[in-house]
Amino acid sequence: MSPDALVGHFVGASALILVAAHAAGWLARRLKQPYIVGQLTAGIALGPSLLGSVAPDAYDALFPAGIAPALTGFAQFALVVFLFAVGYELDLTVLGDRARTAVTVALASFVVPMAVGSGGALLFREQLAGLGMPRDLSPSMVVFAGIALSITAVPVLTAIVRENGLSRTVPGIVAVSAAGLLDVIGWTVLAGTMLDGDGSGHALAWPWRAVLGIGFTALMLVAGRPLLRALLWGTRTRMEPSLRLALLIGFALGSAWVTHWLGLHVIFGALLAGVVVPREEGGTLDPELVRPLHDVSSLLLPFFFVVSGQSVALNSMDSTGWLVLAVVTVLAVTTKIGSGTVAARRGGLGRDDARTVGVLLSARGLTELIALNAGLQAGLLSKPLYTVLVFMALTTTLLTQPLLHLVGRLATRERPTPEPARTPDAPPHPHPHPQDGTAPTPVADLG
After folding, report:
1. Alpha helices for 90-153 (secondary structure H)
2. Is 169 helix (H, G, I), strand (E, B) or coil?
3. What is the DSSP string of 200-238?
4. What does 54-84 look like in DSSP terms, one character per residue?
5. Which of 13, 308, 227, 333 is nearest to 5 (CA)?
6. pTM of the full structure
7. Is 442 helix (H, G, I), strand (E, B) or coil?
8. Which of 30, 98, 252, 346 has its CA at a distance of 20 to 30 angstroms from the CA of residue 50?
């Protein structure tokens, strides 16, 4: 195929991807679901499993093999910009008065699913072998199975918290804070897994790459922020926002290239670059930076969903695959909700507030998909198991909103019925109403 024809195919495919993904996202939002659910569904629908099976000629015409590198490049660029924004917005100071509770919840909702996922991978080796995994799983594969169950999607969780009016309540703040800590823990463990799991063909052995990775991280954390502040925010060098944005995206891409060369993934360099970018005075975010980052990533992320959908193999889902999907989904939901709820309860939250925290932490969405793609590229997942875990991520995200409604209904049902008005001669009720079963505690009661 000639270069001109490839350009034409790429432009046509891009038009279809952008329109279909954003239309599906709009429809999902109308159905009270996160925008990402619609975009991920559209990405799978445009892949070989659905469009390729229903209309193979149309699929081959829309997505010829020659445009795959360009689509992948756009997807990786969108991923770098998105995770750069996530790193920039990561703020653990939001923990506030509930820091101890948030830390407890984060640790519990990471360790319990991690242990169950890793233990399940070892226990059900035969079933996983039926999904294309080796019978002798490497340590990295076992750890990655745990990571797949322990991830929480901060962007999706934040959107759900905001859309349900929980932003200024105790469960909303604890869930968002714990999810931020979970991000730090999860990406750190995943980085170590990738170092060990992606070593084939690399010029350096994994111990050397680990040393270089730690050194690069330390250099960025120590020197990155003051250097960027002096160059881009200094009194003499302060530049217009559009130029600063371009230079910072270039900085994120450079950091992503370094971590990719180290055998990690572009996601780690992008996150690290976002973390070291200086904030405004008082620790506030720069709106002239956040807004365009969100606009660019939101526009281009559909390319990532479509590229992810290309690896979904529905035709590989036999009875074993559907059984594994059911088991993994049940484990993913119960371990997250159970550990998050128990930890929040022990941290002093009321029964219904603790349930809300557990349900919120079960949302996975985009963050799970990013980790699954990294694992697939590193050879830690087979395509059939990748398909199972993608549908698990989609299902757990879809369940979050209905489960929140269920928690609200339980709270209403369990709330004590108001007593009838007393006559002046009636004695007072000897016991006060219990505190459980009430609406989410407002932020004023955080202390």
Report:
1. 99-123, 125-129, 139-150
2. strand
3. TT-SS-HHHHHHHHHHHHHHIIIIIHHHHHHHHSSTTT-
4. H-HHHHHHHS-GGGHHHHHHHHHHHHHHHHH
5. 13
6. 0.77
7. strand
8. 30
Q: How confident is the model at residue 343 (pLDDT cuts 50, 70, 90)?
A: very high
pLDDT tens digits, residue range 206-236? 677 778 888 888 998 888 888 888 887 765 6
Are the beta carbons of 329 and 362 closer than 8 angstroms?
A: no
The 3-class SS string of 343-381 reads: HHHHCCCCHHHHHHHHHHCCCCHHHHHHHHHHHHHCCCC
Angle at 241 between CA 304 and CA 239, to 5 degrees: 135
- Best CA proximity match to 88, nearest among 328, 334, 272, 305: 272
User: Which pLDDT does position 90 carry in this prediction?
Assistant: 74
- Which residue shows structure tokens 């319990």? 112
Which residue is listed with tokens 């005075």?
A: 281
- Calpha distance 52→63 (Å, rounded): 10
Cβ–Cβ contacts within 10 Å for residue 205, how many? 10
Angle formed at CA 270 by CA 264 and CA 274, multiple of 5 degrees: 140
Contacts of residue 365, Cβ cutoff 8 Å, sequence gap at least 6: 34, 36, 37, 40, 153, 155, 156, 393, 397
Residue pair 59/52 in contact by the 8 Å Cβ criterion: yes
Tokens 């606009």 identify what position? 295
